[in-house]
């Protein structure tokens, strides 16, 4: 029964490889899966027929998969694991005594490992060695050094954060992650009660990836708690009552489920412009337009646009084209060989004045590739960051857009 069950597993796996591989070929992908599928089905049928060649054939498939994987992804452990772990697991089961014993005549009462078993064992050993070695490699690292001037910089990284506040992902700019509050102790923690509860209303949709999760680190600044949701909503809450002060919706464009593993937001960043010394006018960039403090923006300028217009402009920056790399071809997002879309960052005319509401601002990331500057006071877009719509397209200058 052990041999029959494993034989059918290998046969069905081969059929799945061949069928999926044929579809992959139609999409312009690799031919390897079809070849491996046929070989696996052949191995499974040989095992079902009590032939030792089933073990050696499976071993050759494993060696072929190892060679193909190294050619395709190099010593990238995660990529190698995705291509070989299942086969290695089944190969190990095929070498157990119940399988080897069942490939001999019924009157043989013990397992005999022969050449076919040795080929499979050697393939498993080589695969394991390469896999373990790849764990300690960093194929995507790029060597580089900082200049002496950069290393000698003396600008302070640490910032002063009031005891009851949390201004950054790690509380301080230096990422201390330490809170000096001492009212909650191991002796009174069991007496804590829920002060308030807030429901964001952001739930997983049918087109979202499986890992649409809440992983946000809230910020607490000047009595306000700032959070973001998996669909990139940014919400400001009263820290005492839990009441919503404002909510910013970037109108997220749905990303392709097939190429999106995570849908989450781990937090926003905070910047207090009032704590930064003003830049002398003589050091302003050449395209700066200086306006008297408090002067209203001219009609037709980005700052005079309504909030809906600014959000619409931000959404219009989202890149919908994709490069012709394998993962995009397989999911139908691009044609094979399609060039990487060129995404340029727009130039923006800087002004010498900033809206009072935007002196303190948040920087919010979105899963469709934007970084948006919004007011910490009102939740409205702050024009001038990246572009007139307060948005930077994060796909700009990226080698492969998905």
Describe this protein's structure:
The chain is α+β, with helices and mostly antiparallel strands and 402 residues long. The chain is 32% helix and 10% strand. The chain is built from nine helices and ten strands. The protein has helices at 2-26, 32-48, 53-73, 77-94, 97-102, 115-135, 148-151, 307-316, 326-330; strands at 211-212, 219-221, 224-228, 234-238, 244-248, 262-263, 269-272, 360-366, 370-375, 391-393. It has a four-stranded antiparallel sheet with strand order 2-3-4-5, with no helix packed on it. Strands 7-8-9-10 form a four-stranded antiparallel sheet, with no helix packed on it. Helix 3 (53-73) packs antiparallel against helix 4 and helix 3 runs parallel beside helix 6. The longest helix is centred in the N-terminal third of the chain and has 25 residues, at 2-26. The two termini are 46 Å apart. Mean pLDDT is 84; it is low at 281-304.
Biggest β-sheet: strands ordered side by side in the sheet: 2-3-4-5
Rg to the nearest angstrom?
Answer: 29 Å
* Helix segment tally: 9
Q: Tell me the strand percentage band.
A: 5-15%
Features:
single chain, 402 residues, alpha+beta, elongated
Please outline what is shown here:
The protein has 402 residues and is an alpha+beta fold. The chain has nine helices and ten strands.
